[in-house]
Design goal:
With about 450 residues, this protein is an alpha/beta fold. It has one domain: L-arginine/glycine Amidinotransferase, Chain A (5-stranded Propeller). It has 16 helices and 15 strands. Strands 2-1-15 form a 3-stranded mixed sheet, sandwiched between helices. Strands 3-4-5 form a 3-stranded mixed sheet. The protein has a 3-stranded mixed sheet with strand order 6-7-8, sandwiched between helices. Bound molecules: N~2~-(3-carboxypropanoyl)-L-arginine (SUG). The site of N~2~-(3-carboxypropanoyl)-L-arginine (SUG) has 21 residues, from loops.
Length: about 450
């Protein structure tokens, strides 16, 4: 078996990072509407996490941000004239739509796509489906550019199979890897893919949240599993508990995380939770499957949403051939602000399970919009041939970290409020920065202003 790794591709925070309160159902986003943002700090916080994972010996990639404000979308809505005219008219008439077109939300690459490793797919290629993100307008305009960026990072047809996003209607609402987890023995072996959905779109009688939207549908998850050529007996569909969506769990990765033989989740994460566990154990097939379930009496769902305990990364720190599993849990510093959560984490790493180390990151800029460590990364399992076929200019090493940090220092503002989004100078700064970035990462022309 070829040496296989799980690479994490983090989204680089874009120059327009701001707090516009765009995501109903995402409590942090709503609560922080109009707070002053710091795009420079946000980007540097993200880069620090990337560098640390690289320093741990993991393969860490970076995905470029998108062109924002998205003048092209505004023009599609009838605004015309020069770019400055478009911005001024949109700011006057529809400030909320301008804010949507200026969001740096592509930074949360857990929502960029669903990825199935070649060990799971019938054509032995790595499959990618960019998420249509059609539940929120500001995110629905990401998938075309996301597709182009993914193709320029994973640009070899022999190893990579790129699909277009699903139909952009809420019947097929798809939020990508945030609702998808893979379990396996070794990364290079066939795994079990778990798709978590919020509702069934074509059956209104089925359970669904009542207060906040269920962003992912079963129909979308099944379509992805079909087009990724997954094996039926290794694919599981589970419904998220609708009650917790109403408490702010807008993606499954806010309440559960998995890696290899470990599922770490809240006891209320899923509907019919015991069935979900049985299905997973059966599909996984070996008896070393760990389910670490946190009871409500220990940590309430609301506390999990606030601290983002489950929006953690579980990183295997032992190599494939080692028999003893060893994992590090990467959590946001917000977990330290809550005593119960902090105490729980101390017990977790001391207990008899594969998780035995904690790494804490200050990701406050992203967290204010509901984006923790797991939101910021897209996992791509790659064997050595596939890794060699990946655009190596997008893999973090000491030099790229320094180059990107300097690039951020040079181009990013350190304060941004909503009124700035209409500033034509911000658009020029953003395009100048991204044009330079495509050269650093050798992406070719991926942005509309370059095509
Ligand atoms: O889609 N927030 C993002 C956060 C995405 C988190 N991703 C995962 N859980 N994987 C969202 O709700 C807020 C933007 C604003 O309000 O300005 C936002 O889009």
């Amino acid at each position: 078996m070829k040496k296989t790794v799980e690479a994490n591709f983090d989204g680089l925070v874009g120059p327009t990072h701001n707090y516009a309160g765009l995501s109903i159902g995402n409590i942090a986003s709503t609560n922080n509407q109009s707070v002053l943002s710091n795009p420079k700090k946000a980007a540097l916080q993200g880069l620090t996490k990337m560098k640390s994972l690289h320093d741990m010996g993991l393969v860490q990639g970076v995905l470029a941000p998108q062109e924002r404000p998205d003048i092209h979308s505004l023009r599609k809505l009838g605004f015309n004239g020069t770019d400055a005219d478009v911005l001024a008219k949109a700011a006057k008439e529809v400030p909320f739509i301008l804010a949507s077109c200026a969001s740096a939300s592509s930074m949360w690459t857990a929502n960029a796509a669903t990825v199935s490793p070649s060990a799971d797919t019938a054509d032995n290629r790595v499959h990618f489906t960019p998420a249509n993100l059609c539940s929120k307008f500001h995110r629905s305009i990401e998938h075309e550019t996301t597709g182009r960026i993914l193709k320029s990072v994973f640009g070899n047809d022999e190893h990579f199979n790129h699909h277009p996003a699903l139909f952009s209607t809420t019947h097929f609402g798809d939020e990508g890897a945030a609702n998808h987890t893979r379990f396996c023995n070794q990364y290079g072996e066939q795994g079990v893919e778990l798709f978590v959905y919020g509702r069934e779109a074509f059956d209104a009688a089925k359970p669904a949240p009542v207060k906040f939207p269920a962003r992912q549908t079963l129909e979308a998850s099944k379509a992805i599993a079909r087009q990724h050529l997954l094996h039926e007996n290794k694919t599981i569909f589970a419904q998220q508990n609708p009650n917790i969506i109403d408490k702010g769990v807008f993606h499954n990765d806010v309440i559960a995380v998995g890696n290899r033989n470990v599922l770490f989740c809240h006891e209320q994460a899923f509907l019919n939770q015991a069935n979900v566990y049985n299905n997973l154990r059966q599909a996984y097939g070996k008896d070393d499957f760990f389910i670490i379930e946190v009871p409500e009496s220990r940590i309430r769902v609301e506390t999990a949403v606030k601290s983002y305990l489950f929006n953690s990364q579980l990183l295997s720190t032992s190599n494939d051939s080692s028999s003893k599993e060893s994992m590090t849990i990467v959590v946001p510093s917000d977990c330290q602000s809550d005593q119960q959560v902090e105490r729980y984490l101390e017990e977790l790493v001391a207990a008899d399970n594969p998780i035995n180390d904690i790494k804490v990151f200050d990701l406050r800029q992203s967290m204010n919009n509901g984006g923790g460590p797991a939101c910021l990364r897209l996992r791509v399992v790659l064997n050595e041939t596939e890794l060699a076929a990946t655009n190596s200019n997008c893999l973090i090493d000491d030099l790229l970290f320094t180059t990107l940090s300097q690039w951020v220092e040079k181009h990013y503002r350190d304060r941004l409020i909503e009124a700035d989004l209409a500033d034509p100078q911000l658009l020029i700064e953003s395009r100048t920065a991204l044009d330079e970035l495509t050269q650093i990462l050798k992406l070719g022309s991926v942005y509309q202003f370059q095509i």
